[in-house]
Amino acid sequence: MFAPRAIVSPLTRAAFRPQTIRVAARPAYFRIQAAFNSTISEAITHDHRELKTYYNEIVDNPDDIDHITRYGNQFTWELARHSVAEELLVYPAMEKYMGEKGKQHAESDRKQHHEVKILLKEFQNMDPASSTYIPKLKEIWSLLERHIAEEEKDDLPALEQALSSEKNRGNSQSLAKNFARTKAFVPSRSHPSAGENPYFEGPMGMLAAPIDHIADIFRKFPDGTISPNPSKK
Length: 233
What we know:
Elements: H1 4-14, H2 40-59, H3 65-124, H4 133-162, H5 171-182, H6 198-216
Domain Hemerythrin-like: 39-159
Protein name: Hemerythrin-like domain-containing protein
Pfam families: Hemerythrin
């Protein structure tokens, strides 16, 4: 019988224990973007700043269709992976280490993610030349910006405090490592129908990710960025 727990639990449990990770040189698609000595807060905040950069590249260059096509793909690629990795690893960690408060934070964050993912799915399927392309991105960012502010002001400091005890020493760094590794294997497009529960989203993601990753090879991305296809096409 199909058992989602058997698929997701090892990945989730790995986030909660320190571990030594050896990473061989790999193509850009498999690079781990967060520094291995960073905390989970630093890794997530880094992603937030990257997303802001990609957003600005689009809204500041509305007449350059090739440019906004590349950065639209980059924005989608980063946000989709970031969101799923948080749902698989970070929100369960909040529930584990922060008790009832963590459960409340995680549930609120999952609801916000779902709203963003619905809009992101619409955005990723739009023609960058469409007059509604940038307005749709701005609609996404208006929700995402509030979510980021709450996460950085409330959620992440509370999680770091919970992880600062002697018995949890090193867990923030371990969680950051697993967060970076997880982003290499999750879907790179938005799939809101998969939900935000790790026991269902994990198996669904394993089905969707290979299709997304193959399609990414044929999409345009900005030159010099860490992406599946930093082409000059």
